[in-house]
Amino acid sequence: MSAAAASPDSQSSATPAKGAGPLAGVKVLELGTLIAGPFAARFLGEFGAEVIKIEDPKGGDPLRKWRKLYPEAGGTSLWWAVQARNKKSVTVNLKAEEGKEIVRRLAKEADIVIENFRPGLLEKLGLGYDVLSKDNPGLVMVRLSGYGQSGPYRDRPGFGAIAESMGGLRHITGYPDLPPPRIGISIGDSIAALHGVIGAMMALHHRNMNGGSGQIVDVALYEAVFNMMESVVPEYGVYGMVRERTGASLPGIVPSNTYPCRDGSIVIGGNSDPIFRRLMTAIGRADLANDPDLAHNDGRVPRTAEIDGAIAAWLSIRTIDEALGVLNAADVPVGRIYSVADMFADPQFAARQMIQRFRWQAPGGKDGEGVDVALPAVTPKLSATPGDTRWLGPALGEHTDEVLQALGYDADHIARLREQQIV
């Protein structure tokens, strides 16, 4: 394997457990690239599923070259170390008939196939669900695409940024006098991936427990974002209200905002009725704490500016640490805004072992080379069958021979496929 757990860093008290995981025995075939499909497969692999990732022999998944590389010149993405952890990399030329046959044979043994190509591409390759499920009626196929497998936009290219816009997230994000910004991560892809995982688990449960067959899980990126939009649909449907950008506040839920202190900003969520009373008392505003008109959220909303002004005035003469001390003592939800450097230094992250270190020889690196790489721990935490990082992102095609041999290909056959650039 390309990496093994090294001595844990100062934030870990023990090397991650090497249990089988709750999805042990589940076989996943990943046909996706970049973010949404691979993130869904990564999630399943972290909890014990065997994930076989199909990559183009000429360069593999483009994510191998995204963002910060190690080594910096000509290396492999550090993101790859986590996005492809626990996966087996198998190179297959999907344009070659013998390459397609390899995929069909792998799909015959799989429980789940995950793909995020444009709708119709797998069908053009002869690898659609109708073909793959003939030999494997119990197969679950997770299909992630910009707009889903149907509708007038079906054939358009769709990335997470477009989904965030169409799904409504961008319109309500930012300040009203500025253009809508994007969130600094690919949140649309990640939300869609998690919907794909949930759908796959429900489909497997139906197959295994209810006597059902396999099925397609059709996830449109924009619909996954749309599913997170809380009350915007009924508010528009009943009142014709269009939610707009409100900066750092959470509209209609008071008080919940980002507030400046002398040396930076903090976030306060004082929006439940008892917490509001504690917050107002802690900042010396008993008059607001005891005002019957402010006892419930619907009464506080019309007086948002007054309440936020009282909080801001109290914070303006205090440092972040001073404010946190008072508000934590009053049992008010409050927190500083963390950078990744703050996360590395924080005792809560350490106690929960959320940052773990591994020794990684970047794919393509020379023997004996490597880097200590910090990765996020697997989430969520299961008490009996926790997830695990068994190895980091593999070299391109690292597991091709192993996987093909398990399918019955002998060494000569594999050598011929490699010579013909099929694998």
From TrEMBL:
Keywords: Transferase. The keyword Transferase applies. InterPro entries: CoA-transferase_III_domain, CoA-Trfase_fam_III, CoA-Trfase_III_dom3_sf, CoA-Trfase_III_dom_1_sf. It comes from the Bacteria. SUPFAM superfamilies: CoA-transferase family III (CaiB/BaiF). One of its GO terms (molecular function) is CoA-transferase activity. Pfam families: CoA_transf_3 (PF02515). This is Formyl-CoA transferase. It comes from Paraburkholderia lycopersici.
